[in-house]
Specification:
By secondary structure, the protein is α/β, with parallel strands linked by helices. 33% of the residues lie in helices and 25% in strands. It has helices at 47-55, 80-86, 98-101, 108-120, 124-137, 154-166, 184-199, 214-220, 238-243, 248-255, 290-294, and strands at 3-16, 19-32, 36-40, 62-70, 73-74, 91-94, 172-176, 206-211, 223-228, 231-237, 299-301, 307-309. α4 runs parallel beside α6 and α6 (154-166) packs parallel to α7 (184-199). The model has no long low-confidence stretch (mean pLDDT 91).
């Protein structure tokens, strides 16, 4: 398979009044054509920061090192003018909170048409017609183009966000917590919609799905990366990770799901300002030894594409 996006040694830090926030630390990931890769972990683990780094919408206070290769271009080396040509047209971000992302003063059709006009050069009438057609693709009648965001339900607003992202038919999508705050029925509808977008792309479209919802990740993704305290601790084919989680954090995360009896992981994630010296999961791990406290484990391969950052996996 051909790679679409390669993340190499990516680190993202923020200055704060309390110190340096190490939000992402030495991340490496590859996403392939036709693949949905899930990035899962607890709130505050650095998942959203990674998504924002890919599309370069981090605050100016962020200090970013490493490389993000999209095709033959290092995104981190591109200027704002070049990035504006990529955002929406080649890479689309589905935000986790459509209520704050949609413009409340514009009709949904206008917001979709605006994206089409910007990247495809259509006139106003052509762009509006395309907006109506795109809404039909996400399961909403064309008349909904005339509605404002406040006239939509939560699930409909999320569909509208997907429609805006579909407007220019990009090949790479970043979906950041796309089912957060929705009831189970609507979650399943949105998950099905996202899956159809990628699968109908005939192997050309790919997606990074950022979520803390294990059920959504299990249903949608081909591969999975599990993130903890700014690091990826386990990566592999989704089926393998679910069947045989290797990292103690991965096991705890999967066991915390309602289907497994809601068994929470003891303790709390470390502060990203004051990260421990060795394994970041040391204080919460029942299998930890002395060397875990002082040494950072490197990735080890456990067969095929399944890798884990743990001395005792």
């Amino acid at each position: 398979m051909e790679s679409v996006l390669k993340i190499k040694d990516l680190s993202v830090n923020f200055n704060s009044k309390d110190g340096i926030v190490k939000a992402a630390n030495n991340l490496n990931l590859t996403i392939y054509s036709g693949e949905i890769l899930g990035l899962i972990g607890e709130t505050g683990s650095g998942k959203t920061v990674l998504g924002q780094a890919i599309i370069k919408i981090l605050p100016q206070t962020a200090r970013v090192t490493g490389e993000i290769w999209y095709g033959n271009r290092n995104i981190l080396a591109l200027g704002e003018e070049e990035m504006n040509k990529i955002r929406g047209k080649e890479i689309a971000l589905i935000f986790q909170n459509p209520s704050s992302s949609l413009n409340p003063s514009l009709k949904i059709g206008e917001q979709i048409a605006e994206t089409v006009q910007k990247h495809q050069g259509l006139n106003k009438k052509e762009a509006w017609e395309k907006a109506e057609a795109i809404l039909s693709q996400v399961g909403m009648p064309p008349r909904f183009a005339h509605y404002y965001p406040h006239q939509y339900s939560g699930g409909m607003r999320q569909r509208a966000m997907v429609a805006i992202c579909l407007a220019c038919q990009p090949l790479f999508y970043i979906a950041d917590e796309p089912t957060r705050g929705l009831d189970v029925t609507v979650q399943n509808q949105i998950a099905g919609l996202l899956n159809s977008i990628i699968k109908n792309g005939k192997g050309q479209r790919s997606m990074l799905l950022i979520t803390h919802d294990i059920s959504v990740a299990a249903a949608l993704t081909d591969s999975m990366a599990i993130m903890y305290a700014g690091e990826i601790v386990e990566y592999g084919p989704t089926r393998e990770v679910f069947k045989n989680p290797l990292h103690p954090y991965s096991k705890g995360l999967l066991n915390s799901h309602p289907a497994k009896g809601l068994k929470p992981i003891k303790g709390f994630s470390p502060s990203l300002i004051n990260l421990p010296e060795g394994c970041k999961f040391f204080s919460r791990c029942s299998r930890a030894e002395k060397d875990c406290q002082k040494e950072v484990p490197m990735f080890g391969r456990k067969g095929g594409k399944h890798i884990v950052r743990c001395f005792y996996a």
